[in-house]
Amino acid sequence: TPRVFSGIQPSGNLHLGNYLGALKRFVDMQEAGGYETVYCMVDLHAITVWQDPADLRRSTRELCAGFIASGIDPEKSILINQSQVPEHAQLAWVFNCVARMGWMGRMTQWKDKTAGKNAEAASLGLFAYPSLMAADILIYHATHVPVGEDQKQHLELTRDIATKFNHDYGVDFFPITEPVIEGAATRVMSLRDGSKKMSKSDPSDASRINMTDDADAIAKKIRKAKTDPEPLPSEAAGLAERPEARNLVNIFAALNGQTVDQVLGDFGGRAFSEFKPALAELAVAHLAPISSEMSRLMDNQDEIDRILTRGAERAREITAPILKKTYEIVGMVGPV
Ligand code: AQP
């Protein structure tokens, strides 16, 4: 059975972009059958930038609640917190020795996150982030990785690392992973600026819809979302030069399981004053049950911690043998 792996950072403010670009699609792949699905809270990635320890603990549990509330079933999928499965970090070290500095330096996320700042002061972990991500995927020999558009380059690097490892050691051990970037909302944009992606770390809360926002907050943010004065076009081509309008239509389509053309078939020629309330209603209908289930789970932290402990046990049945074999290939004296 092909194995699916993906992760989300517990760095606070889980948002609609994470939901449509990642979580909702994780659930689709879990339900599709024919895959073994492994989903992860990547806390080791989160600490590549400063995290207050108490906030990190809370965000990790909140993210776990978000996974479950969105429909990840810890019986059907393996649901884990990265640091509880030590083979991720162990394989990442091997990959740090396979990957080249130049490859890391070319990553746009590294460039974006250090733009205008002193890159010398960034953590070494932030630079090596894609190497740990490659390890997250390949420690499961996962072949399918559902992600948003922003992660495409990191997945190409994962393929480069697997290829170089296999070549250097003369083995056919790590698979060449396929990114799965599908759907109408692989790149949800900020509600305040159609040229920036919706992001956990945007200082403006109005730029994103948080998974924990209540109905009023969601409706207000959509009402205030930046748009242009034109009515909606009747075909997708008419959105080409209208990033804010395109973003709202994409969100509608993704939430409603429609294509952009279907949405425009219904709303073409109509003003945002009509479209926005319909979008708000749709977003609330989707997100309100998730947010109330999240808060129920957050009141039951023992349940969350038990799920993660069990997930880690199941994960290690896969990861321990793959690490052992990797060490053998590399020439470590065992047993490990
Ligand atoms: N705006 C987005 N649209 C579609 N997908 C998105 N993802 C993130 N933002 C969008 C997808 O969510 C998954 C988890 O992402 P992550 O936890 O690695 O965080 P990130 O990509 O760093 O998300 P943020 O919100 O942008 O965090 P900051 O602000 O810290 O950089 C991935 O599959 C990602 O593609």
TrEMBL record:
<dbReference type="InterPro" id="IPR002306">
    <property type="entry name" value="Trp-tRNA-ligase"/>
</dbReference>
<keyword id="KW-0547">Nucleotide-binding</keyword>
<feature type="binding site">
    <location>
        <begin position="9"/>
        <end position="11"/>
    </location>
    <ligand>
        <name>ATP</name>
    </ligand>
</feature>
<feature type="binding site">
    <location>
        <begin position="148"/>
        <end position="150"/>
    </location>
    <ligand>
        <name>ATP</name>
    </ligand>
</feature>
<dbReference type="InterPro" id="IPR014729">
    <property type="entry name" value="Rossmann-like_a/b/a_fold"/>
</dbReference>
<keyword id="KW-0067">ATP-binding</keyword>
<feature type="binding site">
    <location>
        <position position="188"/>
    </location>
    <ligand>
        <name>ATP</name>
    </ligand>
</feature>
<feature type="binding site">
    <location>
        <begin position="17"/>
        <end position="18"/>
    </location>
    <ligand>
        <name>ATP</name>
    </ligand>
</feature>
<feature type="binding site">
    <location>
        <begin position="197"/>
        <end position="201"/>
    </location>
    <ligand>
        <name>ATP</name>
    </ligand>
</feature>
<keyword id="KW-0436">Ligase</keyword>
<dbReference type="InterPro" id="IPR024109">
    <property type="entry name" value="Trp-tRNA-ligase_bac-type"/>
</dbReference>
<dbReference type="GO" id="GO:0004830">
    <property type="term" value="F:tryptophan-tRNA ligase activity"/>
</dbReference>
<feature type="short sequence motif" description="'KMSKS' region">
    <location>
        <begin position="197"/>
        <end position="201"/>
    </location>
</feature>
<comment type="function">
    <text>Catalyzes the attachment of tryptophan to tRNA(Trp).</text>
</comment>
<keyword id="KW-0030">Aminoacyl-tRNA synthetase</keyword>
<dbReference type="InterPro" id="IPR050203">
    <property type="entry name" value="Trp-tRNA_synthetase"/>
</dbReference>
<feature type="binding site">
    <location>
        <position position="136"/>
    </location>
    <ligand>
        <name>L-tryptophan</name>
    </ligand>
</feature>
<keyword id="KW-0963">Cytoplasm</keyword>
<comment type="similarity">
    <text>Belongs to the class-I aminoacyl-tRNA synthetase family.</text>
</comment>
<comment type="subunit">
    <text>Homodimer.</text>
</comment>
<dbReference type="InterPro" id="IPR001412">
    <property type="entry name" value="aa-tRNA-synth_I_CS"/>
</dbReference>
<feature type="short sequence motif" description="'HIGH' region">
    <location>
        <begin position="10"/>
        <end position="18"/>
    </location>
</feature>
<protein>
    <recommendedName>
        <fullName>Tryptophan--tRNA ligase</fullName>
        <ecNumber>6.1.1.2</ecNumber>
    </recommendedName>
</protein>
<keyword id="KW-0648">Protein biosynthesis</keyword>
<dbReference type="InterPro" id="IPR002305">
    <property type="entry name" value="aa-tRNA-synth_Ic"/>
</dbReference>
<dbReference type="Pfam" id="PF00579">
    <property type="entry name" value="tRNA-synt_1b"/>
</dbReference>
